[in-house]
Amino acid sequence: MTVSLHNTLAKTTEKFTPLEDGKVRMYTCGPTVYNYLTVGNWFGYVMWDVLVRTLRTHGYEVTRVMNITDVGHLVSDADDGEDKLEKGAKRDGKTAWEVAEFYGNDFLEGMKKLGLIIPEHITKATEYIPQQLELVRTLKDKGYTYQIDDGIYFDTAKFPTYADFAGLDLEAQKAGARVEFNAEKRNPSDFALWKFTPAGEKRDMEWPTPADLTDEGLERPGFPGWHLECSAMAMTLLGDTLDIHGGGIDHIPVHHTNEIAQSEAASGQQFSRYWIHNNHLKVDGTKISKSLGNGYTLQDLAERGYTPMDYRMFVLQGHYRNEGNFTFENLTAAKNRLAHWRNVAALRHQTHDSNTSETEQSVPSLAASGIIKEALYDDLDTPRALQIIDEIFREVESHSLNRIDRHALIEVLHTIDDVLGLQLLESTPDITDEQKQLILERRRAREAKDWAKSDRLRDELAEQGVAVRDTASGSIWEYTS
Ligand SMILES: [Zn+2]
User: Fold this and answer.
1) Nearest-angstrom CA–CA distance, 401 and 435
2) Is 6 strand, coil or helix?
3) What's the 98 CA to ligand 1 centre distance in angstroms?
């Protein structure tokens, strides 16, 4: 079984083979840390986590770099407007450094809550300033840059394949250039590699632009462009050519197009062999926007009684390349599904190792894990994987406890946790010996037709979070939710 992925570069789904046998070098664009992340932002991070898990499950050693953009991302992607961090600083009455620290930490906390595998390298843009300046120098030496009033720009006309990745119509861009288009730019698609601090201003975050990089040969304060950050950090840690670069589809026409142009112009090598893009998530069928107040955070979900794992299950219910729609109804469906799966996971505590006879078939089948993995290897088809798991679990539940193969069930649960990260095993502990004793007493009471006692014991257990369900083949306990 090989892994196949939809490659934006090839515009088709293709077999994945890394450059170096068994090893994957991967970069995914991280957050700009000026605010809390919304359910829309987290959508992509959960999907990237599934990609990493799928590659690892297949046996690849994955080295992943993710940036934290803590400087240089302007309100408009077209290199104008305020720096999001400096804007956040004014809003919160803090410095840009404090804002980056605060929301950066909140992001890392969120990653842990969602059970996301922490990338090998999480790099802050402010910690890679020399590498970014070096990249500007290389591009300047090769003749790709020019300086205008507000910064050093990349001349996209000098990179002939600039429009290819996103299928851009550059002529139409020129014709339709908006009035606020920076008239000093040679082409509307040119982008800032490095910006200068406007004269008379003092930014919280700024660094000296080395004298050899400016036309006047004088040092002056400046800061990196957002696109430059990703290229510099990716190439510093992973080399000139990556196996996989991931991000949201909104990044295709500008951010990723610019990353490709500046990286390949500098190195003369292909920047990334596979480009994987996740679609957007809408809320109640509309775009997430501040004015609508629909940018729910993990904290908002917690206040409404939903856990990060409920949200994770919600994300997995959709395919990463399809537009998602977040509603509380969908989230509730995910929460119920997760609760159900946990109760199936709890069956492993209620069956024994050697209670299946050889004449009768036991469940789940030994092929189950392989079928789940296959769905993931097929361009991360999480909705299909979930359906397959539902079927496997239905089959398990339709059998009596003594037909359940404990080892096979545990293996399936391990596979689910490995590829989907739902933490089924660790979230489903066995009940205590005292609780088991109460279940036994209740069974005796029922056998003696002492219904009052049986009900009392059932209530006592329910108070402790244990529900007892009577089936044809005996009592089964579940977690009350
Ligand atoms: Zn990026």
Assistant:
1) 19
2) strand
3) 22
CATH architecture of 16-278: 3-Layer(aba) Sandwich (3.40)
Q: What does the pLDDT look like over 64-123, one tens digit per residue?
A: 999 999 988 887 766 777 888 888 998 999 999 999 999 999 999 999 999 999 999 999
Cα of 141 to ligand 1 centre, how many Å? 24
Domain boundaries, the chain: 16-278, 298-420, 433-479
Write the DSSP string, 35-52. SPPPHHHHHHHHHHHHHH
Is the whole model's pTM more than 0.90, yes or no? yes
How many angstroms separate the Cα of 108 from the Cα of each of 100, 168, 270, 410? 12, 35, 31, 30
Q: φ, ψ for residue 167 (rounded to 5)?
A: 60, 45
Helix (H, G, I), strand (E, B) or coil at 319: coil
Q: How far is the CA of 199 from the centre of ligand 1 (A)?
A: 28
From the CA of 256, how far away is ligand 1's center (Å)? 7
CA of 88 to the centre of ligand 1 (A): 20
Q: What is the distance in A from the centroid of ligand 1 to the CA of 33?
A: 13
